[in-house]
Amino acid sequence: MNAHIRPDAAPVLLRQDADGIATLTLNRPQARNPLSEAMLAALAENFAAIAADRSVRAVVLAAAGPVFSAGHDLKEMSARRADPDRGRAYFADILGRCSRVMQQITALPQPVIAAVEGTATAAGCQIVASCDLAVAGEDARFSTPGVHIGLFCSTPMVALSRNLSAKHAMEMLLLGEMVPAREAARMGLVNRIVPAGEALAGARAFAAIIASKSAATIKTGKRTFYEQREMGLKAAYDHASAVMVENMLARDAEEGIGAFIEKRPPVWGQS
Q: C-alpha angle 12/169/116, rounded to 5°?
């Protein structure tokens, strides 16, 4: 296990690796696990390390304590209103850092699975929406409550609008109400609901299945999924077809198809 350690406090983020799965745990429960400067730096550092780590096949993102994440550290941000520019440069910097972390999740070769207990609000909800999969305890709740304090959740909107239908995303953004786990699953924000307290186990079960597959194939599939989603229909089919041709010629596809025909377990290569 390693951790990103602040000089004045406990580690803000923990990492534990086992069986090809890296589990990252937000670790500021007393502050509701905010996406503070320190937390964003720790996430960025760990995602960069994991991207280059061929032993990691899947990532689980969890949180310590009763709150998954309350989003940005508003106290930390508000303190910069005393700056000569009223915080403009700082706000642009911290929001840019957060956006880059969300994009790291999408760009990561390994799938990322959120394990959500408690509440995930604002940028905390954004990071759940940015993950490839999400498992929630039945007591979990989600919201983008910026409208309650005069701050529309515009950056969380980017991830939400790519997961939910337009009307469901707008409902969350305009009303700012808490959405129960089962409703979040119906909306498309969450894949599975499990008994309270079992989200981490559920996410690790997903991760274990993914870790048993060809890492090269999973990497290709995840990248292509996000690439084609931004294209028009014809361009998406053209791109996906070209990728599939290369995939068919890859060593793991040859091995996997051969193993299927010969009725034996496949032996995957390294990613």
A: 30
